[in-house]
Design a protein that fits this description.
The chain is of the alpha/beta class. The chain has helices at about 1-20, 30-40, 55-70, 80-95, 110-115, 125-130, 195-200, 205-220, 230-235, 245-255, 285-295, 295-305, 320-330, 340, 345-360, and strands at about 40-45, 75-80, 105, 150-155, 160, 185-190, 220-225, 240, 260, 265-275, 330-335.
């Protein structure tokens, strides 16, 4: 009997999701708005340190309602890191359960995991997004198959405490963080942020970066997660090599916090932030409207204020100005996208190798 009821629940969940699948095929913004009004609720879940957390979600939904004359009720739940949240969405989809979050926001690696698991809903972004960003080379922020949209850019570099790292001491090249004066005073991340992309053939290559990481592991005093800027401003560590992006520094500096962010002369990696709608989203139209808002001028301005980032491919972008300086100095700029990651068959293995080196210091 118990097994029978389990099958019934799974079938009921699947039927519910099939019903929802009839939505989110809006050809116009007006159709999307009408679909969102019928759904009435938008559930959001991501880390409290990302995108302004609960306060950011509340402000974005409020501004979205004002712009589109809707009354969507926002329900935010603090979630795990971006990759762990995607794993949760994948598991929920496999179990025939609704997704914990109606709209997914995260990084390229998590998005690649979701695409491989085929849990992202193809959506007509190209039809209803009105403010389309520019493309850059082969990179199009709006995926051709409609599975995801890049809505913001975080620029990888070195974060430092400005009370202890000043003038000529501010790192300019990657090797500068190995200066003996920083031994036992600096940190890296447990997931080798930035470093893992430096190891790709498009940047410095595996051999050079593995050697660098071994030296860095003897230099650092510990590991910290991105978004823990207070561990730098407090002086627990005086430098983080390397960051997931300098956006949290942009926010912290507005309060007068003693923190800076430097991009290396060799170049940088752009940690793009992606939005997508899980196939098992209960409010796909409201999720699509949320993404539409993030791609608007108002949404980009709100992202910059709440989380210190915006999309560098929009005219007037704050992040674009920073990148223009890197490019003027002939630094290499690489866009971290799911498609770019998928082109390296050994990327995951290299990341694990670098993580193990850093954790076995």
């Amino acid at each position: 009997m118990g097994g029978f009821m389990k099958v019934v629940r799974v079938l009921a969940g699947a039927l519910s999701l099939l019903t929802l699948a009839s939505y989110a095929r809006a050809a116009t913004l007006a159709e999307l708005i009408e679909g969102a009004k019928k759904e009435g609720v938008l559930r959001g879940q991501w880390g409290q340190a990302s995108f302004g957390g609960s306060e950011g979600f509340k402000e974005i939904v409020s501004a979205m309602n004002k712009k589109y004359k809707t009354d969507i009720k926002g329900q935010y739940t603090p979630g795990p890191d971006m990759q762990a949240l995607m794993l949760r969405v994948i598991q929920e989809n496999a179990a025939g359960q609704p997704a914990s979050t109606d709209v997914y926001l995260g990084n390229a690696q998590a998005m690649l995991d979701g695409l491989n698991a085929k849990v992202m809903r193809p959506t007509t972004y190209n039809q209803f997004i009105q403010d389309k960003p520019a493309t850059e080379g082969k990179f199009n922020p709006i995926a051709a198959d409609g599975t995801h949209v890049a809505f913001a850019t975080a620029v990888v570099g070195v974060q430092y405490n400005t009370n202890f790292v000043k003038g000529n001491d501010i790192p300019k090249k990657i090797e500068d963080v190995l200066n003996p004066k920083w031994k036992g005073k600096i940190a890296s991340t447990p997931y080798a942020a930035g470093i893992r992309e430096f190891a790709t053939p498009d940047f410095l290559g595996r051999e050079k970066v593995v050697d660098f990481t071994r030296k860095l592991s003897k230099q650092i005093a510990g590991l910290m997660r991105c978004g823990e800027v207070e561990r730098i401003t407090s002086g627990e560590f005086i430098m983080l090599a390397f960051t997931c992006g300098g956006n949290d520094v942009n926010v912290a500096r507005r309060t007068g916090a003693p923190v800076g962010h430097a991009v290396m002369e060799e170049g940088t990696v752009l940690h793009m932030r992606y939005a997508a709608i899980p196939k098992n989203s209960r409010s796909p139209n409201a999720a699509g409207l949320f993404i539409h808002f993030l791609m608007s001028a108002e949404g980009q301005e709100l992202l910059w204020r709440m989380d210190g980032l915006d999309l560098h491919l929009f005219p007037g972008s704050q992040t674009k100005r920073e990148l223009d300086r890197v490019r003027a100095a002939k630094g290499k700029v690489i866009i971290n996208s799911p498609e770019w990651l998928a082109s390296f068959k050994d990327y995951t293995a290299i990341q694990k190798e670098l993580e193990n080196i850093l954790r076995q210091k």
